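for the recovery benchmark. tokens below, seq after
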């Protein structure tokens, strides 16, 4: 089992249209992330004020820089929370919608012509859909075992079209 919070990918048969959404693993909700930043800022500035009370005032600017850096990191991380890959099979096409950093891109593939490509780059596997000279990397938010499961699922779907 590759992640207990995600449903396992299952082959539903050729009669059931494919509808699958893969989301980035988010270990903490954005609102909780900002609450954590507030709590950490309070502790950091509290310690800084304590040192300033004893004459070491130079600690306060560094506490501010530390929290500014942490806030920037949290902001960058929270921008990626809504990223996803959505696969929808409708009217004889395989539609792939990818949201990456707030930008949504849509791709359409003819399942009769589309092929899955599984490449190994050292220790990492990459999965892509290829058709008519275009290649789209998919399964970016999944670990290797999840990419294997996705390759199996999409492989079954595409092979059912190619047998027709």
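predicted aa per position
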């Amino acid at each position: 089992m590759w992640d207990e919070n995600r449903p396992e990918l299952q082959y539903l048969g050729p009669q059931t249209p494919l509808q699958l959404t893969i989301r980035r693993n988010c270990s903490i909700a954005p609102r909780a992330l900002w609450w954590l930043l507030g709590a950490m800022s309070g502790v950091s500035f509290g310690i800084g004020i304590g040192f300033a009370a004893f004459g070491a005032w130079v600690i306060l600017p560094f506490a501010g820089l530390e929290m500014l850096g942490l806030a920037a990191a949290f902001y960058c991380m929270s921008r990626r929370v809504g990223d996803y890959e959505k696969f929808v099979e409708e009217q004889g096409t395989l539609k792939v919608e990818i949201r990456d950093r707030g930008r949504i891109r849509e791709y359409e593939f003819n399942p009769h012509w589309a092929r899955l490509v599984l490449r190994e780059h050292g220790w990492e596997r990459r999965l892509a859909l290829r058709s008519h000279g275009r290649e789209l990397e998919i399964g970016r938010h999944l670990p290797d075992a999840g990419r294997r499961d996705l390759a199996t699922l999409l492989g079954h779907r595409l092979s059912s079209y190619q047998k027709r």
